[in-house]
Amino acid sequence: MTKANPSxxxxxxxxxxxxxxxxxxxxxxxxxxxxxxxxxxxDLVALCKQDHGGPAATSVSARHLEKQDLxxxxxxxxxxxxxxxxxxxxxxxxxPNQTLPFETKxxxxxxxDNGAGKSGYARILKRACRARFPGEIMPDxxxxxxxxxAATAAIGYEQGGKVKPAVQWNDNGAxxxxxxxxxxxxxxxxxxxxxxxxxxxxxxxGLDIPDELADACQRIKTALxxxxxxxxxxxxxxxxxxxxxxxxxxxxxxxxxxxxSNIADLEKLSNVTNEDRARHQRLSEDLAKDPKKASxxxxxxxxxxxxxxxxxxxxxxxxxxxxxxxIQDLRDAAVAKRQAASVAAKETFQASLxxxxxxxxxxxxxxxxxxxxxxxxxxxxxxxRCDDGSACVLxxxxxxxxxxxxxxxxxAFVQSDVELQAKNAEAEFSAALRGFDSKKIRLxxxxxxxxxxxxPTLGADIIRFLASARYRRQQCRRAIDQKVPANLAKLEESxxxxxxxxxxxxxxYAAELLEAVDVAGRARLEAERDELADRLSLPAxxxxxKAEITRLRALRLIAACISDTSTAAIxxxxxxxxxxxxxxxxxxxFQQEIVRLAADRVRVEIVRAGGKYGSPVYxxxxxxxKDARVHNVLSEGEQTCVALAAxxxxxxxxxxxxxxxxxxxxxxxxxxxxxxxARRLVDExxxxxxxxxxxxxxxxxxxxxxxxxxxxxxxxxxxxxxxxGAGVVASGLPWxxxxxxxxxxxxxxxxxxxxxxxxxGDETAYKEEVHRIYSNLRRTWERAIEDVAFHGVxxxxxxxxxxxxxxxxxxxxxxxxxxxxxxxxxxCDQTDAHDPSRGRNAAPPSPDELLKDVQAVRIxxxxxxxxxxxxx
Length: 872
Description:
The chain is α/β, with parallel strands linked by helices.
């Protein structure tokens, strides 16, 4: 084809460039295999999803239709002819080491009975060459799994009349790039289909490809729709009856959930704090009460928190390092100053008669004496009173001058600076210690109990802090009592700030509750409560939301894929091919073919008529009745003629004359058309190689006769089953199918073989061979009556009489009958058809006599044929 006049496949290839990858892959599969299997559809669904962002198909990748996938169109000077088929392995039960030859410039007839291996060889050519329905090749079912092999073969061929190296073919599911120029026909491959069981539709090769693609689109759409229905049904029921409020953030997100939703946004909403949980609980409880009462309760709680804050503050101030260090410093100062005063006292009272002067007991006694003197004994007099006549306030004895001097010395010491500092330091320490001891840290309280319930972390922190403060104070007090340095534990961090913040939020919340007295204020709090409630419920919804987003994404993917299955563009492609390729010339060619095959007995025409999913088809209609149900009118034989006419019409558009292979093109039901089909195939063999596989001996005879009449080269091959399997190749046809001339050739060879036995003196073996040859010769004389004398007018087991050759029978003369009787009788005399007499044991004829008798039937037949050829 030129660019100005592209073929249907060229149009399809060009059209496919802008199609989705999965459709380009589908086209490749259709062109290569003829149709799509369920596995193909599964692969294409996966590829279609991949095209739209779905998961990558792990077991398959898209392979686009390319130029090399198209049937080879080698050109008029490069036609392909098959030369041989050999080296077959892994195909049914075909015997190995067999070579099936083909006549490259004429007709090859391959005959085989059922089970002889004919179908096995034909399947190889269907897979290696071009067939609409190549079928599958099965290995030997009786072979063990260990010996099963992939189908392989060597296929010899010629291209443009030149012998090429044999193709080492492996069954990889695709036709061979060169051998695909060879077309294979059988009734399954015919471009004739019954539509709705009442219309026969003719679709030339190329036009059926859009139809197959449209059918694939429908099958894919069906699969996707089924998946879509499952996804629709998989929607969680919670989305039909939501547990969330439509006005909350969660509700709005869930209501607007789509395939593009970001689940992270929802997960952020699920991040709630303990404060959020506590507030939700408070709102839930308080909104169920009277707002004023609830507000009052919150105020009470806030007051308790304020008291707790004071406790925490006191604990912090009474147990911090500065406070504890201060009291220890006071103790140390009092001790140090007392020690200084004691040193001064010793120096002052070295002459004291009694020990303990300036001790604490002594000073207590001295101060008691002072109070007694000033308040009772000598009111208004300075202590100690030491004038004449005064008495000791302790012993009530008059004071001597020495005693007066001692008392004045005591008082002077007591009133000295060192003593005063010691007394003041001790007084300050005692006061501080009393203040220290007066502070008690309690670990329990109303607010703390509530906090422990509502915020266990804060409650624990409060207890931990107070306990650590109390323990530090105890350590400090113990060190004071033991007069040793204090080794204090760490003071835990004070939660005072958090408690104060809680107090403020509680007072604020109390104020908010008061606002709930009016409708607007209550609505705000209820909205907050609902917002928190939905956020708190999110952990149970996250997975459902994720599943829903995944489901919606899958639905979006399915919807996008379904949109790809529209057949509108495919319909346009079919129309384009129909308009540009299926021209009136081709329809005229179909009429020519159908007339050649069936004359005027099958009056049909091709018309454009609708199509499957809009892909145009060419419908076969009766001329006489366009509304008639064609399948009820056309017989199987007539439909075979229509199929062959369509097949040959398609091939007429090709630029090359590559081989045609026909696998059982006619059946026993086609007897009325057998001769016409045979003649048409022989006519085609004059222009290109034609190979016919058949099991019909009558059809073999029709083909051979037609080839003889047209002087078309014909190669006859027979197949049989042997010990090594089926498909054993033999030259020529089996004896029952062989023509007279072929039988004579075979018997002449047998005579030469028998002469070897004769010359060796093997009388017994020679005699048996002579009897066998005469038996075959007798059958040949009988076959000569059918094939030659009556010129095929009457054939045994044929269900019709071929009257058009009846005139040829008039060539028969009485002399011909005498010649037949003579030759036939001698055969009867030499065969074992009857039990011979005991006394009769004549020697068999010599090889020369035997050869003369064999040649007699050839001479007899050739003489009659010569006379028949002169009869028109």
